[in-house]
Design a protein that fits this description.
Keywords: Amino-acid biosynthesis, Aromatic amino acid biosynthesis, Cytoplasm, Transferase
GO biological process, one term: aromatic amino acid family biosynthetic process
Structural class: alpha/beta
Subunit structure: Monomer.
Protein name: 3-phosphoshikimate 1-carboxyvinyltransferase
Number of domains: 2
Shape: globular
CATH architecture of the largest domain: Alpha-beta prism
Strand order of the largest sheet: 3-14-16-15
Bound molecules: shikimate-3-phosphate, phosphoenolpyruvate
Oligomer: single chain
GO molecular function: 3-phosphoshikimate 1-carboxyvinyltransferase activity
CATH superfamily of the largest domain: Enolpyruvate transferase domain
């Protein structure tokens, strides 16, 4: 348990933003597929990326990805399409996160994969790849974009090339674009015939050097901190205006919650504008699901009525994030009500005001984003975080950074 004492942001605080685990895991898989690997700078210290590095170096028959979604999905495609025999497994929660859409796609390409426990979920045994069975495959886009990124990154290795057609709704689209952008940076082109059809000819990855960008998902917690303290300002060092990370959307999402942002040399300056909307706000997280928890907590704390759309994937992430938010925000009298579940929910503030006097304990559900989304509330009150180690999944220096830019109130 971590006890946070009520604190305030220091004037002129600078946060050195860490590397993006999403970009890093793509670069690592692409590099593993390249005949001569590039030098990767700014490798992420996040556990998800460190696990990826360790497994790619390990010769053993079992790849245990722990709780890393991208590592599970990217390495499943990598092992299957490069004809490796591997048992893919992970934490108990990982074994509840679906993977059937990816396994079906890999099987139709020619991979032999067997489920070891429950159909459609890890663990699976990948037995190898004999010959390419099809050149055109369809995949549903409504569950996780990670399946699509996984196939795209490995597709240039297929001897006959691939046409990948997406069906249904497409969630987390910017992550697909990030994948295509990184492939291009490693010298491989993807033809986007239309918005649901991708064509990849057989090609070889090649580049000398690649630098991983700073992480916009991690940046979102600093937007929360600034939203919660009048007259505050922070500099987020390393964020780039030309980033392909969809979570850059935090700039627009936080504007009605009183945060303004401007790119300056080397990063982003954010400050509290004092202008919090009095109206109910509709937010759509279809393209940036990892920001939903951050924004939900700020809405609750600032007393903003909100309607969240595009939240369907929250129920299949590190935990059921909709339920986790509902339970933890209830501790402050803030109500989350599912509408058209799992796609939408509403947030209604506590009619008596947001309570700040009871040193609440925030449960973390083994989800890094639960800890980091609630931590900025320590600018309003004493607060306990159940499991501080959870942040290591994506942002290992989060608590140090928080300490660096705050002082006890
Ligand atoms: O490709 C990626 O790096 C990611 C894609 C998203 O997952 P979904 O596509 O499952 O929504 C996101 O939530 C996750 O944190 C990282
Ligand atoms: C959902 C996340 O990660 P993953 O799906 O890669 O486990 C996340 O980092 O919020």
């Amino acid at each position: 348990m971590l006890q946070l004492k009520k604190s305030r942001l220091l004037k002129g605080g600078i946060v050195p933003m860490e590397a993006s685990k999403s970009e890093c895991n793509r670069a690592l898989v692409i590099n593993a597929l390249a005949p001569s690997p590039a030098k990767i700078d700014n490798i992420s210290q996040a556990r998800d990326s460190q696990t990826m590095i360790r497994l790619l170096e390990e010769d053993g028959p079992v790849w245990d990805v722990l709780d890393a979604g991208t590592t599970m999905r990217f390495l499943t495609a990598y092992a299957a399409l490069t004809n490796r025999e591997k048992t893919m497994t992970g934490t108990e929660r990982m074994q509840e996160r679906p993977i059937g859409i990816l396994v079906d796609a890999l099987r139709s390409l020619g991979a032999e994969i067997e489920y070891l426990n429950q159909e459609g979920y890890p663990p699976m045994k990948i037995k190898g790849f004999q010959a390419q069975q099809s050149e055109v495959i369809e995949m549903r886009g409504d569950t996780s974009s990670q399946y699509i990124s996984a196939i795209l990154m490995c597709a240039p290795m297929l001897p006959k090339g691939l046409e990948l057609r997406l069906t249904g709704d497409i969630n987390s689209r910017p992550y697909i674009e990030m994948t295509i952008d990184l492939m291009a940076k490693f010298g491989v082109s993807v033809e986007e015939a239309d918005e649901r059809t991708f064509r990849i000819a057989p090609q070889t990855y090649h580049t000398d050097q690649f630098a991983v960008e700073s992480d916009w998902s991690g940046a979102s917690y600093w937007f929360s901190a600034v939203a919660l303290q009048k007259d505050s300002e922070l500099f987020l060092n390393g964020l780039r205006s030309d980033s392909t990370q969809g979570d850059k959307a935090i700039i627009d999402l936080m504007q009605p919650l009183g945060v303004e942002a401007k790119f300056d040399e080397g990063g982003l300056r954010i400050w509290n504008s004092g202008k919090v909307t009095q109206e109910a706000v509709v937010f759509d997280f279809n393209k940036c699901p990892d920001l939903a928890q951050t924004v939900a907590v700020v809405c609750g704390a600032l007393g903003v009525n909100a309607h969240f759309k595009g939240v369907q994937s929250l129920r299949i992430k590190e935990t059921d994030r909709t339920l986790a938010l509902q339970e933890q925000l209830a501790k402050f009298g803030v109500t989350i009500e599912p509408v058209n579940d799992p796609y939408e929910f509403t947030i209604s503030p506590n009619p008596e005001g947001f309570p700040t006097d009871h040193n609440p304990l925030i449960n973390t559900y083994e989800d890094h984003r639960m800890a980091m989304a609630f931590a900025p509330l320590s600018l309003l009150m004493d607060l306990q975080i159940e499991e501080k180690e959870v942040v290591k999944k994506s942002y290992p220096h989060f608590w140090e950074d928080l300490k660096k830019v705050t002082e006890q109130a």
